[in-house]
Amino acid sequence: MEIPATWMRGGTSKCWVFRRDDLDVPGMSVDEVLLRVYGSPDVRQVDGVGGGTSTTSKAVILSASQREGVDVDYTFAQVGIEAATVDWGSNCGNCSAVVAAFAVREGWVAAQDPSTEVRVLNTNTDQVIVQELSTPGGVLTEDLTTAIPGVPFLGSPVRMGFLDPAGRTTGRLFPTGRERDRLPDGEGGIDATLVDAGAPVVALRAADVGLTGHDSLAALDADPDLLGRLDAIRREGAVAMGLVADVGEAARAVPKLALVAAPREEGCDVDVLMLSMGRAHPAIPITGSVALTLASRHPGTVVAQLLDDEETQADQLVMRTAAGVVTTYVSETDGQVVVGATRTYRRLAQGVVFLPDPPTSTATHRILKGEES
User: Fold this and answer.
1) How many CB atoms are closer than 10 A to CB 299?
2) 287, 92 contact by CB (below 8 A)
3) Cβ-contact 373, 188 below 8 angstroms
4) CA angle centred on 294, ends 289 and 299, rounded to 5°
5) Which of 60, 77, 83, 100 has the smallest number of CB atoms closer than 10 Å to its CB?
6) For the chain, what are the domain ranges?
7) What is the pLDDT averaged over residues 153-157?
8) pTM for the complete prediction?
9) Which is nearest to 85 in space by CA: 28, 34, 138?
């Protein structure tokens, strides 16, 4: 079976973009379709289109919206790699960067002169993202003019503002009602800020786990004991935030974990090292940067403790990541807070992906349903 798809880079991630209706396959759930198309479960995803990493095993599912004040409904899926799971629990801010351009190319939104605004609803988090593209003369040129950290080549810019992002998953910016909590860590407890904005994030001081905040990603990924400890803390955070009832139920992708430290370079506000899907993230998820930005504006958080009073009230946050400097902005529109950043995107390929005939063997069914490795 052929499924129309577009392969795109959004920010520092890559994703396959699908129209929602194209994923309706008789006899298969959307989860099963994605797992088979991506080649999961398999650490290499060798028989599918997945890239074998958390940043390259993502799906963007889109449709023209019927909701008032919204142009596009956007659902994000983090497709499991080793496990036959699809995580629908959060958004990917980097992949969000592809939505506006896709909608204009599909004719869902008419291009205006000199720029076009596209209002996107992320259905995972009920979050409206206002995106702005350059469309001189009412034409989407997609000129490659802009660089961002974590991407070696230029891309097409899109300005993205998350409208009133606090509490989109849990109902509150600080789900526990506190700006700082004490989580079990197997070693007497650790201070953490549990924040929900853009996506749920557990933020720790890097020094509290024996790191600097600008550590080698390869060294971190090669330390299974530390990764295990960090994931255990993250899972405790998921319970404290009310996302799950038990640590064993915590999803791999939600919440994310951020390690923050005082900046080592002048001109930055904070150093950030983030983990995603149990590994060090090569840059920073945009949704994570939104969460840290709002956390930085509250003096009791582990982020704000690294800043001076003036920085906590600034209209931007400058973060040094493993890939380079990321700057977010804070503004207001119609009385609502907007937190955002400029990202880039690029169309990589367009055509179809091939779904084999629906599996019929018992063994294949068990693999897709996670009953066998």
Assistant:
1) 13
2) yes
3) no
4) 125
5) 83
6) 2-165+344-354, 181-335
7) 97
8) 0.81
9) 34
- pLDDT, tens digit, for every residue of 2-18? 999 999 999 999 999 99
Contact in structure between 183 and 365 (CB atoms under 8 Å) = no
* Beta pairing, strands 279-280 & 270-276: antiparallel
Residues whose CB is less than 8 angstroms from the CB of residue 59 and which lie 6 or more positions away in sequence, other chains included: 15, 16, 17, 18, 34, 38, 76, 77, 79
Q: Is 308 exposed, middle or buried (0-12, 13-18, 19+ CB in 10 A)?
A: exposed
The per-residue pLDDT for range 41-54, each reduced to its tens digit, is 999 999 999 999 98
- Transcribe 16-35 into DSSP letters: EEEEGGGG-BTTB-HHHHHH
Of the ranges 81-85, 219-223, 274-278, which one carries the lowest mean pLDDT score? 274-278
Q: How far apart are CA 173 and CA 194, in angstroms?
A: 8
Q: Give the CB-side neighbour count of residue 164, counting CA atoms within 13 A.
A: 9
Give the span between the Cα atoms of 55 and 45, in whole angstroms.
13
Contact 211, 227 (CB under 8 A): no
Q: Is the pLDDT of residue 373 over 50?
A: no
Query: In which element (H, E) is residue 317 found?
Result: strand 316-321
CA 280 to chain centre: 14
The letter for the amino acid at 360 is T
63 — phi, psi (to 5°)? -155, 150
Q: Which of 122, 190, 202 minimizes the C-alpha distance to 162? A: 122
Which has more confidence, 1 or 308? 1
The reply to whether domains 2-165+344-354 and 181-335 share a CATH topology is yes
Q: Which of 20, 117, 2 is nearest to 61 (CA)?
A: 20
pLDDT over threshold 90, residue 84: yes
- CATH superfamily label, 2-165+344-354: Diaminopimelate Epimerase; Chain A, domain 1 (3.10.310.10)
What pLDDT digit, counting tens, does each position of 264-322 carry?
A: 988 899 999 999 888 888 888 888 999 999 999 999 999 999 997 665 667 899 999 98
Half-sphere exposure of 348 (CA within 13 A, CB side): 16
Contact of 342 with 5, CB cutoff 8 Å: no
* Residues 275/232, Cβ–Cβ less than 8 Å: no
